[in-house]
């Protein structure tokens, strides 16, 4: 059996971020071959990642990378905010955003197959899972391309818990960033009311009519009331019609127009939105960790 030195163990730990005993076992198994030991740890990382695949990863962060006329916004999840705040996790998220903006994959599977210095994006995710002990997953991303006469605006709120990417026709980057900050704060659903699907509009109108009739309003004035309430609802969900968060005396569209532009599109990712978070009691949580 090859003698394994402390220096070898340290080198492997530095390369992979694993614990001392895991590093030593891998070196013993491979008789001191550093590259094979890295492979062994990766293989074990796969097993650990699979073991953790049933866990709920609802924390994490969003990131944005701009590459000329292309930009990507991504969301990467983990299980706890403490892992989300580590340099290892942040580096992974930044790497993924940069890689996706550059290579424009179409699906999450395509993104995971992208080549990296360590193999593939999937390999990097597995390694981070191994190091942190938590399930890590690339949840979603979107790549946007703009024209030369358009401007990107990006904003990350609270360390990436909310990420917003905006495209303006005309104006400038500063204006686009202000709009991105507004979107982060107010969370519109559409750029303008013309984008609201007809069936959504019809449903809302039906609800408002029933609401007005149930209030005992005379039928002859219900239509006018509903029209006013429908307009108010549309102004609340449409970015262009919302009161600009930095100046409530004007709408977002008026603000952008004053800078020589128009809102084209936006993407807003809020970390964990739509994910049902698992709630365990303390005993179950401890027993779960023991079983791992």
TrEMBL record:
**What is a GO molecular function of this protein?**
translation elongation factor activity
Superkingdom per UniProt? Bacteria
Alphabetized Pfam families for the sequence: EF_TS
Q: Where in the cell is it found?
A: Cytoplasm
Q: Which InterPro entries match?
A: EF-Ts_dimer_sf (IPR036402), Transl_elong_EFTs/EF1B (IPR001816), Transl_elong_EFTs/EF1B_dimer (IPR014039), Transl_elong_Ts_CS (IPR018101), UBA-like_sf (IPR009060)
Q: Which CDD domains match?
A: UBA_EF-Ts
Q: Which PROSITE patterns does this one have?
A: EF_TS_1 (PS01126), EF_TS_2 (PS01127)
Q: Where is the Translation elongation factor EFTs/EF1B dimerisation domain?
A: 71-273
Coiled-coil residue spans: none
Gene3D superfamilies this protein is in? 1.10.286.20, DNA helicase RuvA subunit, C-terminal domain, Elongation factor Ts, dimerisation domain
Which terms in the GO cellular component ontology are assigned?
cytoplasm
Would the keyword Secreted turn up in this protein's UniProt record?
no
| Signal peptide as annotated in the record | none
Return the similarity comment.
Belongs to the EF-Ts family.
The name this protein goes by in its record: Elongation factor Ts
